[in-house]
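note to self — DONT lose this again. spent like an hour looking for the file last time. sequence + predicted structure for the chain T wanted, 194 res
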Amino acid sequence: MTLSGTTFSSTDTNTTYSVGAGGLTQQNFTTTLKNKLDGIAISANRIVNNNQLTNGAGYTTNTGTTTASNSQTFTNKTWSGALKPTTYQETYVAVGAASTITCNLANGNSFSTTMNVNTTFAFSIPPSSGTAFSFTLIVTQHSTARTITWPSSVDWAGGSAPAAAGNSEVQAYGFLTRDGGSTYYGFLGGTDIG
C-alpha cells in the first residue's frame, strides 16, 4: 500500500479504538473510568477483620481473638474458652427500705439497703440451673437494730444465719447458687464494717 500526499494527524483524547470485522470503532473507555474500576477491584478484596465475614445466616464468623471496647454490650452470650477481662465491674442496685425486700438477680449482682423496719429478704430471677451465680448484699442497720428474715432456700455456712448487726452497723453478705435458686449458699463477709 502506497500513500502519497496524505497527512495524518491525531489528537490524544484518551479514546481507545479497535479494529474489528465492522471496521474501526470507538470504545469510549477513558483513563478515568479505568482508574475507578481498578480502585473498586483493589478495595473489593480488602478484609481487615475476620468479624466482617458472615456465614450467610447473619452470624459472625470469628476465627481469631474478639476484642470488646467500652461501648460494646454482650447480652445472653455463651463464651467458649477463657474470658480474661482487664477489669471486672458488677451492676449495683440500691434497694429501698421495706418490710419485704426482693433482690431481683436479673437486675444486678451487688445490692444494698438501709433498714428502718424488721425485714424479710427474697431473691428472684436467678440464672437457670447449671449456671453459677453469686451476689453480695450490704445491709446497714437502723439506729435501733431491726430483725432480718432470710429465705428458707439459704444454706448458711455453719448451719444457721449469722446474727443481725447491731445499731447503725453495716454487714456484708455473700450468696451463691448454681441450681437456679433452689439453694443459695450464704455467708457473712464482714460485720460492723461501716
